[in-house]
Specification:
CATH class of the largest domain: Mainly Alpha
CATH architecture of the largest domain: Up-down Bundle
Order of helices and strands: HHHHHHHHHHHHHHHHHH
Helix content: over 70%
CATH topology of the largest domain: Growth Hormone, Chain: A
Number of helices: 18
Length: about 425
């Protein structure tokens, strides 16, 4: 084991004790500096995600450019489905690579390039033309994001040992959220009346993705043997019952991601509500990430299965709380929706941390990209279906919709009881 400030920082952040038995001897030697590179790269990419958030930044930008509302409505489906659905096709290419970090590097650099194209579009176009150009650029960005997603879990599994991966990604989530907090404060201050502030934020996101790609290129990844990799195929669902259950749990927990807009609807009765602006949504999400991502990460290293169970319960309680406050006539009070939204976003960030750690730790060696691709493709389809169902559910009102989502979250917690422990917990 190597000593020094890098190793010390890694041990403190990850709670590492000794070398990771599941890594090769070469990977063990460079685990500590690799882990810090992971953290720094993820901080930059996650902060870039927050700066170009389709639900907030791009929607506001398109509206300010005079683009028809249909373009703003298409942003989130383009981003989410575009980042998930292509992963089955990408997984086999990634697994054929001896150094899979290059897939992540290309994906991060590509996101920076397409973010820059969004900036150019915003500076030179308006109306429907801006809508088409920005949506097309976001589609390219989503494809690059898919390359990062399908490769990252494999790279993380090769370079950081089990029982500390959650702490690494959780640390990055908490640190990056501090930057998003600054964005939220600026948004709520009224500075976003100036379109240039939004464009500058997206330009900064482009720079951050480029810098993350450069830093990730210094990662010391051991060579993979492509002959040991498996092709991404849906047949793996038939072969692995635990994977099927994991996808069921993850699919039901999509409710924690779909619920926040309905909190905004419930709080929107009075203009003075703290959730009357999307800035409060960003603030609540960033604060929740800041205080919980690292904790969720450490908990996931002990038992990501239990994290998925707990987040389902917490998310359901937050949604039920929103419905209850609305029934009592308190939903538009300045403190009400921010409080329950904060709790919901804590659950949401726990879902993201728990599902990522569980998938990496459960996947057989050489099959992480395949498992990630199959899981993400199924979830991508479910998100499209959930978007349609959610739109239909909205016709019955936000209260009924939130009750439906709460039941889904409870169902996820129950289904997670049957998941196999993959971190050696009880």
């Amino acid at each position: 084991m190597q000593d020094g400030p890098v190793r010390y920082a890694f041990d403190k952040l990850a709670g590492a004790q000794g070398e990771a038995d599941d890594l090769s001897s070469g990977a063990q030697e460079v685990e500590a500096p690799n882990a810090l590179r992971h953290i720094a790269s993820l901080v930059m990419s996650k902060l870039a995600d927050g700066l170009i958030d389709p639900k907030l930044m791009l929607s506001w930008l398109l509206t300010s450019l005079g683009a028809p509302a249909v373009f703003a409505g298409a942003l989130v489906p383009i981003r989410e489905s575009g980042a998930l659905l292509p992963q089955m096709l990408m997984a086999s290419r990634v697994q054929a690579m001896r150094h899979r970090k290059w897939a992540w590097i290309i994906g991060s650099a590509g996101q920076g390039l397409f973010a820059a194209l969004i900036v150019v579009s915003a500076l030179t176009l308006d109306g429907a033309a801006a809508g088409y150009a920005i949506c097309a650029a976001l589609g390219g960005l989503a494809l690059c994001r898919a390359a990062c997603s399908v490769s990252f879990k494999d790279i993380l599994g090769k370079t950081v040992g089990k029982s500390r991966r959650g702490a690494i990604t959780g640390t990055a989530g908490s640190v990056s959220s501090a930057g998003v907090l600054v964005l939220a404060v600026l948004l709520m201050s009224g500075l976003f009346e100036n379109r240039g502030v939004v464009i500058a934020a997206i330009a900064l996101a482009a720079v951050l993705w480029g810098a993350a790609a450069l830093l990730f290129s210094t990662l010391k990844e051991m060579k993979s043997d492509p002959s040991n990799a498996s092709r991404a195929r849906f047949g793996v669902l038939k072969d692995d019952a635990n994977l099927r259950r994991f996808i069921l749990v993850r699919g039901l927990l999509v409710s924690t991601a779909l619920a926040p807009p309905y909190f905004v609807v419930l709080a929107g009765g009075q203009g003075g509500s703290a959730l009357g602006t999307l800035g409060a949504l960003v603030l609540a999400s960033a604060l929740a990430s800041l205080v919980s991502s690292y904790v969720w990460g450490r908990m996931s290293d002990q038992s990501s299965r239990k994290v998925l169970m707990l987040t389902g319960v917490v998310g359901a309680l937050a949604m039920a709380g929103a419905v209850g406050l609305n029934a009592l006539g308190l939903a538009t009070r300045f403190w009400a929706m921010p409080l329950v939204l904060f709790i919901l976003m804590i659950a949401y960030h726990g879902v993201r941390q728990g599902r990522s750690t569980y998938l990496v730790d459960m996947s057989p060696e050489g099959q992480r990209s395949a498992y990630a691709a199959v899981s993400n493709t199924v979830i991508g389809v479910l998100l499209l279906v959930a978007g349609v169902v959610g739109g239909g559910a909205a016709l019955i009102g936000p209260n009924a919709t939130l009750i439906l989502f709460a039941l889904m979250a409870v169902g996820a917690a129950i289904a997670a009881l049957g998941l196999r422990e993959v971190e050696g917990g009880d």
